[in-house]
Amino acid sequence: MSLPNFNIGILGHVDSGKTTLAKALSQVASTASFDKNPQSKERGITLDLGFSSFTMPYPAHLGSSHEELLVTLVDCPGHASLLKTVIGGAHIIDMMILVVDIMKGIQTQTAECLVIGELTCDNLLVVLNKIDLIPAEKRDAQVAKVTKKIGVTLSKTKFTTTQIISCSAGSNIGIKELVNVISNNVKLRARDTDGDFVFAVDHCFGIRGQGTILTGTCLSGAISVNSPIKISDTKLERKVKSMQVFRRSVDRISAGDRAGVCVTQFDAKQLERGLVYTGSAVQTVYAIVVDLHKVPYYRGAVTGKTKYHVSVGHETVLGRLTFFSGEREFSFANRYSFEETFPEDVGDGGFALLELENSVQCVARSMVIISRLDIDINSPTCRLAFWGRIQHAYTSPTYATDDGMSELKIYKTKEREGVVERMNDSHTVIVKELFKKETDIDLFCNL
């Protein structure tokens, strides 16, 4: 029987010790882990998602159906310029570990990672790292001071009861205690293993004599060896030759599993990141309607017709937003009011039409995160602006001229001003400068 898998994302500001923590926790490294990328080694920072794993005794509070739990660690970059990579990693995790350098406290990307956690995850642990840099006699006082400050920050989020643990990943101080805390906080989500298979690919590479390896996370459904799969927007269909879960061969994977899938007769250069799937679970979309929620920490302008960075899974593209508002539940049967700026006073009745510059592949009801990644990365400003879920997707590249676009009924309130010249009687007034001579007055009768 395969082990149940639990995905933990390790996020935080650059140089807070995330990769060192992943190394300290891990038992098995993947082909993409611990900054194996030559550029990462050269620059001394994480540039891409890294994956590793360890096993722990199956947590007692989950029952006795298994003996062990496989924990997959997703080491996310911390540099400001790589935020879209972090967003891509965050959508596949069950728990987030927010790593904070105890000598520096919360920094700009720490705050952005916390916001991403609020949007994508309900389970958070905060790790105060590098406590070995504090003299032993001052350590407890410093830990208490930083813990209090972070507690104040967390009190303004949904993570008000989050545990804050101190450790030193580099010196292996407090790692066993951290593993115990992780075990006590594991919450396995219900997995959809019955629907179509959807697999989020984050790395793709060839092995001579074997085939092409697609590594990623199974988002839904299940797949077995020799089953046919469709590869992203290449429209190619290939059979699964073999599969591994952290170097252990398996015949089947299902929702939640981290795996490497081997296929043949496929050039790895055709795919960097994307979705592998069965059936019709994945669509190529050119525009989407999203129920929109504003990130409260975003302070930038929120005018319509502005270009934003739109992230759906591992893909980030530019898109132009048109705001509108109306009934809480989206339906083409409803009429919606056009909004020049985001309507913050409508609660859950705010929506946006996102017209994408490049198509993306996604499944129905995918989460969308909208940001302004063009803001100066040295500015202490939150770049995450909105989030929401797809309510409708336009799958035709000519959606703007298709009849389907006319189903979206958005009206704009207009006003005309005139001057009352005289009043004939109690029911009739004469007004000038209200209409032009060529205006069809019948259009305004009985309004």
Q: What would you note in describing this structure?
A:
The chain has 447 residues and is mainly beta. The protein is 14% helix and 39% strand. The protein has helices at 18-25, 38-43, 83-90, 108-120, 136-154, 175-184; strands spanning 5-12, 28-29, 50-57, 68-75, 95-101, 124-129, 163-166, 198-207, 211-220, 222-224, 228-231, 236-245, 248-250, 252-254, 258-263, 274-277, 282-294, 307-312, 315-325, 335-339, 350-363, 367-371, 384-394, 409-411, 419-425, 428-432. The strands form five sheets. Strands 2-3-4-1-5-6-7 form a seven-stranded mixed β-sheet, sandwiched between helices. The chain has a six-stranded antiparallel β-barrel with strand order 8-9-15-12-11-16. A hairpin with a 3-residue loop joins strand 8 (198-207) and strand 9 (211-220). It starts with a strand and ends in a 15-residue tail after the last strand. The relative contact order is 0.11. The model is unreliable at 39-46 (pLDDT under 50).
Please tag this protein with its features:
mainly beta; 447 residues; globular
Summarize the structure.
The chain has six helices and 26 strands. It is mostly beta strands and 447 residues long.
- Indicate the mean pLDDT: 88
The 3D shape can be described as globular
Radius of gyration: 26 Å
For the biggest sheet, the summary is: 7 strands, mixed
- What class do helices, strands and sheet pairing give? mainly beta
Helix content: 10-25%
User: What's the number of extended β-strand segments?
Assistant: 26
Low confidence ranges? 39-46
Distance between the termini: 70 Å
Percent range for β-strand residues: 35-45%
